Structure formats: structure tokens, C-alpha cells
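Q: Got a minute? One more chain.
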Amino acid sequence: MTLCFTAGLPALAQTTPAALPVEAFFKPSALRAPELSPSGRWLAVLTSVPGKRVGFLFIDLEGGEAQRFIEAAPNADVMWFQWVNDDWLIFGLEEPGRTGSDRRGPGLMSMKRDGSESKQLIRRSYDAFVSGDDGPARRRALPANHSFVGLGTPGSREIIVEEWVFDVRGEYSHSNAMVLDVGTLAVRTMLKDAPRSTDVLLDNQGRARVLIDERDGQISMHWSEDGNAPWRLISKTPRFETGFWPSYVDDSGNLIVETDTGTGGELRRLDLATGKLAPEPLVATPGFEPNVRPRTAPGSGKVSGISLQVDARTTVWFEPAMQRIQAEIDAKLPGRVNLLSCRPCDKPKVVLIASYSDVMPGEFLIYRPEKGQLLALGPSRPDIDPRRMSRLEFHRTQARDKRDLPIWVTRPASANGKPAPAVVLVHGGPWVRGNEWEWSAQAQFLASRGYVVIEPEFRGSRGYGDDHFRAGFKQWGLTMQDDVTDALKFAVDKGWATPGKACIVGGSYGGYATLMGLAKDPDLYQCGVAFMAVADQRFMFSMHWSDVSTEGRKYGYGTLLGDPVKDEARFIATSPLEQAARIKAPLLLIHGKLDRRVPIQNGERMRDALLKNGKKVEWVTYDDEGHGFSLDANRIDFWRRVETFLGAHLK
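A: Always. Here it is, folded:
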């Protein structure tokens, strides 16, 4: 199956009021991540009130209790949460912009729905790390080298967590899974006589069924019939040659895996007796990797459907009742992605709807099927008027070597169909999917300023089939860069982008592509904005204070980028740092001083090389940022600078 949300949508009304301020696009959402409790009676949603951090708003959908806001922590925001049962939730925290030597992670907390009890399950500070194990009766928080994996037995207070084990070099080695009671903090061992693993796949009863281990460039997978020994090896392959990837265990105990045809994805049952895949796929997504997520009914653990990704995210329901309700909601809210959560799913009494489109950030609604009643909870971003946003279109064209090239294009509504100056927005990663059909703060902000936004899914990007991904191996600055250029040419040829009026913008790998684009095609772009940018591929191997492990550099980068010794000539030829003298266009270069993924020395050396060659570069650093923007004030400041810079060089 395949879906296309980007075709046949109505044009938006053309208006010319004053542009929305930067804050409207980049401040936090007013409502985030609503989730129904397992029974469906309670709704929790993340929000904030004046003078408080991001916390929980609890709503009794039966009307028995007044809604209440609970600030979970006085100095940190709740970044995610999940119901464990109707009485208990777990959540992680973030403290944006924290500086100093105290390294902190999200940790893990639990809280009763009424706020009467709250417990720290996993510490946040690595500097307060305490080793050792108190045994099964542990009653204090686990050290920070633990993380949440999934829910335990349906209906219980138990969750599954894992301990990260580090080797003598201080690098991650493997994980140990354990069961934790969120009310008492009691811990018990989950796996006995099990092989070493770095990842675990749980079934719908909270049992470990597949253990995955990445070591020395190999990936091994072991299977258990019931989560206990014996464990059977079902696959061992080189890192990028797995052939399939475990997705979920269905209600009959079958292992369902994702496979790749080269040009798209399929979901198949793996026969564990023979090791062979079922001859017919359960779902096929030609042109896209499905990125499947099982939709498991809380309380029962039954797999009620699967969420998958084509040009947009959609749901395939197994429950006939939910198939009918999905059709009803799609008819009531046409031209949108409508993601449903059901309680219960076989005979739904209440359904939570997250509804969004390319021009609408999203709104949340409650649907009661018995009454056919829709109740709006509110928009995620009330300052955004969909009528003032610009349509996002998905296109496929051919690169210069005839390979498939997916491209996302946001054409400014204010252009009225005429060509507009272009911003080529290059995604980071690069081995990720760049976009999907949804509202994008970056693209919509740039379109609101009159620019056509071109987002290429260059080769090496995930999400469009294994062939597209593998075509990017060892192609930084080469065919990957050509794809970015060809995407701009496509928009110019279509009459959407004004010839000779383009700026290239990106962060991380997108920052590398920005720098390399300015050097490789110096007459193509009028300006560039690079943030947290890789300046030379060789730094990815040599800067050992990066957060990338030795395993990742040797076996991941070795395949994806190449060998720093054998491929040195290619690395030099595709190094923006080495090619700085070729750059003509003015550049806005930005870096966070706390960046460990792409250390700030990348930016400093690039800045110095440009200045040495007499080039125009505006250098900006943020003292309290790492690889990205965690502080709202910094994010807004950055985009204000981008707006000013583009206005000076592209208008």
C-alpha cells in the first residue's frame, strides 16, 4: 500500500497581513503529547502556566474531578511521559541550557496521577554516579547509566529499564535489562543465561523476545519463545547487511520483521523454524521505508494496529471497530493526518485524535463513537493561522545520473505562483529521513518571509529504500552534493525558484553541505548559513572528544565515509576547510561551545581559513548550547539572525 497526502489539496486564501513574528514559529508548543490513561478515563497533556515549568495538565474525561496542573519539577521541564497504569506515570526531564561540569541526562521519574507521590527512578547526574547493586530490594534511584525500555506486564506497576555497561575506555559496551516497580523502586533481574545485547525487543506482555548485539562491525540477533533461556541465534551479519530488522511480536507470538526491496519496504512474518520470510508481505510501502510502530492496547497488551510512514504517517488497524472509526474521523477532518489512540480498542468508548497537516501544526480532539461526538481540546500552536501558511509538496525527479531524487518543496503563498528567491534547506544526519508531510517551523518561517524552500532527500538519506541509502556511501561532497544542486535546478526549471537567487542553509551534515556547496558551486549561491557544521570529514575520526564511540567511528564511519588513511585524497578534495579559498558568497557560521557531536574546533578552523583568504564570514557562538538549540531564547535569536542575513543577501 502507499498513500499520498500531498496531492489534490485546496489552495489557501491569499492574504497580505504583517508577517508573524519569529517567536510564533519557534517558541514551545502550548499543548504537547496528550495521552489517554489505560482505562480511557484520564487524559494527561504537557503544557505550562505562567511562572511554572512544563508540567502535566490532567483532565477527568468523565467529569468527576476538576482538571489540575501539576508542575513535576521546579527547575526542569517534563520532556516526555507515559502512563504505566491509571494511577502512575513515568516521565523524563530536561533542563535547557544547563552549563558547568555537572553532566545531566533526562533521568526517569514516576508520579501518581494526583501528584501525592513522586519518586526518582533513575538519577539525572552522571557526576553523582554510584556503582554497585543493592540487589532485588533496592529502594533508591538507579544511577544515571540506566534508561527506560518499555512497559512490563500489562496492568502492573512494572516497567523495563536497562543498565548501560561501559568498558575500561569509558565507552558503551552492552546493556543489562531489569524490571523496576515504579511505586516501590524494587528491582529484579529480567534476563538469566542470556547472550550479551545492546538492544532488546519486548513483546506485548513486556517480555524480552529478541536480543540484538552490535559488536566488532557485526549484528547478532537471538530469539526466545517466552523471554527465558534458551536463546537461539537467528541472524548474524555485517552491520549494514542484516536483510531484515525485528519490528514487533504479534498476538500469536510470531516475529514480524521489516525488509527492504531496495526501492521500498515490506513487513513480513519470519518463520523461526526455517529462518525464512513469509512469501507474501503483510504490508508493502513502495518508494518508502515504513518505519513501523506497533499500536498496542494498554491494559491488554493486544496489538491493535501498526503505525507506518510513507510520505506521511498513517495507521493500519487490525481491529474492525477502529478501521470504521478511522474512516469516520478522516471524513470529518479531511485533508489531514489523523492519528488515533483508542481505549479500549476492540470496543472503543473514547478515542484521542492528533490531527495535523502541512499548514496546521496540530490540534487535539476527543471522539466518543457511541455519540458520534467530537470535542476539541485545543491547538498545539494557537498563534499559527493555517490560512497564512504555505503548502508543502512532495516530488520525485531524477538526479543527473538518473537516480531517483525525492524533494520537498514549500512554495510561499505570497508569491501567487510566481518564482521566488530560494532557500535550499539541507537536513542533518545525513543518514536519516529529512522530512515528512507535516507542519515544519523552519520551512514555514522561511516561506512566510517570501522564500521558496527546497528540501532534498539526497542519496544517503533513509526512508526511501536501501538503494537510495547505499548510494550515499562515501559520497560526501560528491554525488550527495550533486543531488542538492540538482534539487535547486529542478525548482528553477519548474518556474518556482528565481534563477540566480538562492541561499543554502543547514546544520550538522547540512552545515557541511552548505560549506561544500559554496565551495563546489561558488557561482550558484548568493549566501550560506551553516550551523554546528562539519568542516572536514577527517575531524570525525580524529576529534576523540566527540561523543561518537570507537565502534561507531571504525565500523559505521568506515563504511559510510571511508578510511581516513586510504581515502585521505578524497577527504581533502571534499573538505570545505581545504576548499575555503573557492568560496565567494557571504557566510553566517554558527556553533555551540558545548557541542560534542561536532566539536566547536570545526567552526573555529573554518572561520580562520575563510578570514585568511579574505572571505566574508559572520561568526556567532552560543556559550550554553551543544549540537542544536535547547534554549528557546537561543533558537529564536538564531532564526532572527537568519532572517536578517537572508534579507541582506537574497532579497
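A: The radius of gyration is 25 Å.
Q: Perfect, thanks.
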